[in-house]
Amino acid sequence: IMGSSTFRVLGVRQNGIGADGAQVLAEAIGQSRTMVSLDLAYNMIGYDGAFALAQGIVQSQTFQHLDVESTNLDAEAVGALAMAVRESKTMQSLNLAYNCVEPKGARALARALEASVSLRQLDLPYGSVLDEGACILAMGISHSASLRSIDLQGCNIGVVGAQALAEGIAVSGKLWSMNLANNRFGDDGAVALAAGIAKSSSFQHLKAKGSNIGVEGSQALRYVLQTSCTFCTVQVDPKSFNSVQLNVIERRPSKSVAGGVPNPP
């Protein structure tokens, strides 16, 4: 990898790699002039591995995508990778699914979002973010110059967290997608999200299945779907929308978004 002039992508998920192996890969990331992506999901790299990877990413002038889903990371390890996001000029996506992000890790990530000029996608599903962490991340979202998509599925986010995220959506001029499925914010959270989306100049896609949304919240989301110039897809549980049972509601924006927000991958 270090000597190659063409090597770009490495996938080694579920290969029994621990901290020592991660440290070797981190050295390769730091020295390679071409490597852009590493998939380390379902290994057991822990804090030492995450810290080494962070150092390698900071050294790299090309690295863009890291997947460390379910790799035994705690909030301290998340903080180390957040430092890499903050310092890197090329990092575009970070997948931390099924790790212990918690509010402490969310705080480090929020600071990274505020500082990063390149991160476009952040995935934190089932990371125990909670309301406290969601409120912290909302501040990072509102100040981010690059974030397009964030996944907070199954993060135990309630009304307070959803209200904060709604404010982040309203202020951000870049964010176009958020996954809030399998949380617990209910109608009050959905109404707040609808209000935030209505104020956004960029937001397009919301996933909120399994988040206890009833008719009131669904109707609020339907209304903003019909009136927003950008919002075009919402996924919720089957509820009554003017006596019509819908699972996914979708429409095309009535006009293009200023600045040309890209379609999601």
TrEMBL record:
SUPFAM superfamilies: RNI-like. The keyword Nucleus does not apply. It holds the Pfam family LRR_6. The keyword Transferase does not apply. InterPro entries: Leu-rich_rpt, LRR-containing_regulator, LRR_dom_sf. Coiled coil: none annotated. Keywords: Repeat. This is Uncharacterized protein. It comes from Eutreptiella gymnastica.
